[in-house]
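Section: Multi-chain targets

For targets with more than one molecule, the full set of components is provided together so that the structure can be written out for the assembly as a whole rather than chain by chain. Components appear in the order listed by the source. The example entry contains three components.
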Amino acid sequence: MEIELLKKVKTANPMILNIANSVTQSDVANGISAIGGSPLMTNYDKEIASITKMANAVCVNIGTLNQEQNKLSLELLKQAKKYSKPSVLDPVGIGAVPERLSFIKELCEKETPDIIRGNAGEIASLVDISWSAKGIDSIDEDKTDSIDEIAKNCAEKYQCVVVVTGATDTIATSDKISHISNGSNMFTVRVGTGDMLSSIIAVFAAVSDGNYYEAAKMACLVFSLSGELVMKETPNVGPSAFSSRLLDQLYTVNVEDIKRWGKYDE
Amino acid sequence: MEIELLKKVKTANPMILNIANSVTQSDVANGISAIGGSPLMTNYDKEIASITKMANAVCVNIGTLNQEQNKLSLELLKQAKKYSKPSVLDPVGIGAVPERLSFIKELCEKETPDIIRGNAGEIASLVDISWSAKGIDSIDEDKTDSIDEIAKNCAEKYQCVVVVTGATDTIATSDKISHISNGSNMFTVRVGTGDMLSSIIAVFAAVSDGNYYEAAKMACLVFSLSGELVMKETPNVGPSAFSSRLLDQLYTVNVEDIKRWGKYDE
Amino acid sequence: MEIELLKKVKTANPMILNIANSVTQSDVANGISAIGGSPLMTNYDKEIASITKMANAVCVNIGTLNQEQNKLSLELLKQAKKYSKPSVLDPVGIGAVPERLSFIKELCEKETPDIIRGNAGEIASLVDISWSAKGIDSIDEDKTDSIDEIAKNCAEKYQCVVVVTGATDTIATSDKISHISNGSNMFTVRVGTGDMLSSIIAVFAAVSDGNYYEAAKMACLVFSLSGELVMKETPNVGPSAFSSRLLDQLYTVNVEDIKRWGKYDE
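Its structure, encoded as tokens over all components, is:
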């Protein structure tokens, strides 16, 4: 685990350009800022090229897509490739909504992102595996083996890093796999924690010198552990106080915390 | 009062589809999640049919409407009727903005929602009664009698359940009426608490087996009481801390709290 | 310093109409409400005229502009002039994004706002001075002299009040200048505090009887001091808890706090 990436994030203050889920964009922007990045959200075709050039990584979240955002998302991934900026895709809801799945399959074929993060149902649907997902919620069943298969298949199919989040987070390329087992079930009650993680993966990718697998692992570890530390300190916290404390934990979490409490297999 | 509906909400985890007020949608989504539902917000015409079929209830809020959202709102209410999903309408600002009132009157004639929730000024304007409303704020004058009339008239006119919120909440059908007197004046300082209640009414409607009057009563009771319990525990809380504690109270509020502290006349 | 304006805000409850940054609009709306105003956000061309007439001041923020919002922003400033409502412009990101700068220059020439608020990089770019700005972040270097020049030049050029925020806030007209030195560096970590201040300037402008220079000074003082008081009371607070406490401080801040702790030169 490249734990020192956390220090790089805090020093480099990378700018992350997002096409965001409008519901959760305030939390996402504040998550990026708390961990040490600088957030920018856009909905404007005319500025996409200029600001992609300035950005250090990009993240596309389709939580509240529509016709306009579809076009923008495609354009943003295209510009990211042109300017060699790392890109993360969060395919919110494709496990449940067929219109979203067909859009994302088309998107991934035209402009493959460097990293895809979703829950098991979302990633499964990208490789045509049926998975009992309810809406856009994450799945926390104990099917680690099958999740490994899904993650690897998806990484192989799109030749990118794949992150499947749940009770355990699984990070895969076509030939490597890693698991993070920190976390808290409060992540499933507070809306938008997955969106926040996707953009935080972009933050780590921005300072990773192209090693997106290590970036994704560290982002999941830092994020899951931060939630776990909140619950350790305030076990009876509700979902809203959890969210606030999570942001403040992301602001202070450090290399020592990770060395002491991090649970990962590789 | 069908207090057991609260248990049903917590077990059934109904999915609530929203056309949301963009300003308050994060609070609304987290309110739905805290009480036990699963929120989904949409702005996309192409997915409306698919996701209405999956949803257990829908809520239309016109707090930040525009041409696009007008069309979507009409379409969502139409699909909700087609698939027999309960629908809630929050006609934000129609007491003050004539363009909103004319849109909502047209909407209600074409696709009447099952439940309408607003403040006295908003509901009064739907039945052409003049009411001194300032902008979109709720009215907390002590005009219970006239509010009863307004609520009943509106329920009669549109043949739906009508909820008028204020210091006292009034829930009416054309022939029944009920009042909730729990609450806190902090609801008027924190932006979006009305929007949150409208979507929480949809949560209760989703598990009510078609009894929308009882669903609306319970939603108002649970919501108003949760705010009151926050103030009881932390009397000097400011509006932002109130909002966070309200969400956390919605997460833990239970049947015993309601039996002990609920104030309602029927 | 016209400290009594704070009391006027709390009594008058002015309605502030915003074209908002979609990322931060919830915080902004709650900031307006906490200090004593009544927020309204719009994205709808058809209602602009009606609601500008009702509003007591308007604020245009271009943090998430697009083609539609560009047109709306121009129209809102036009209507504000027509109905003599004070107007504030927050030119987010123009120091870094050329497409935004050219839009704002055009906007300011066609419909000059009464007050412009930005960081040093943004205001510098309006008067064609180069300034090392990174993205949309505020600059807290100690270049008070050159900031004075930039602020005055901009105020002269557009004949309006100019506010440059940073470690010290600078408020200028073409012939007057004033500085506020309260504050906290947590303002730079929490996303959207600048947006919140811009709308709070509109709140004070709404009750200032046309004295926008005094309104801007008081808004900066109240806002900066509120942040400072939060840090004084809870020195180790993280950015999310800071944000919540800031809103609650804005709700309770009073004339005595300002007399006791305010730091300003005029």
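Residues 44 and 158 of chain A are 28 Å apart (CA to CA).
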